[in-house]
Amino acid sequence: MSGRNKNEYAEVKFISADGMLLDVNGTSYFAAFKNFPYLYDLPVSEAYHVEYLGQGDIRWENADIDLNVEILENPSAYPKIMQSVSREAAALFGKRGGASRSARKTSASRLNGRKGGRPKKKPDTTLA
User: For the residues 48-74, what does the mean pLDDT come to?
Assistant: First the structure.
């Protein structure tokens, strides 16, 4: 539990298989994992380290997660597009980065070629 003064705070009351109960300035909010999947991946040791930032904003510093009470009150109004956007953005940046040409990239490619080229992939030997 933390905050700027005694009247402003954020606290995780408990965590269940379905989500976590948050208390922000005396108002309880249930953050269901289906609505907030990034909270599901949060280790329990970090889940309880939530901080109140003011104006309804709360933050898990170690996990770099920020939420506002408006989102907690009405999660359907804030769709979780973060995951699909992240995949698309990573693919786009990878495509642009792979297509770019620079003296540094050319030099690195030639040096790698002198060493025998790209290493061959090793077969997966893990047991399923």
Answer: 93
Please state, in angstroms and rounded to a whole number, the distance separating the CA atoms of residues 27 and 3. 15
What pLDDT does residue 93 have? 72
Supply 2's token pair: 């933390």
**Residue corresponding to tokens 């973060």:** 82
Closest CA to 55 of 70, 75, 36, 38: 70
Q: Which amino acid, 110?
A: R
**Does 128 have pLDDT greater than 60?**
no
**Residue the block writes with tokens 């109004």:** 77
| Residues written for the chain | 128
Q: How far apart are CA 25 and CA 11, in angstroms?
A: 9
Handedness of CA 56, 82, 17, 42 (dihedral sign): negative
20 CB neighbour count, 10 Å cutoff: 22
Tell me 2's DSSP state. Answer: B
Query: What SS3 class is residue 108?
Result: helix
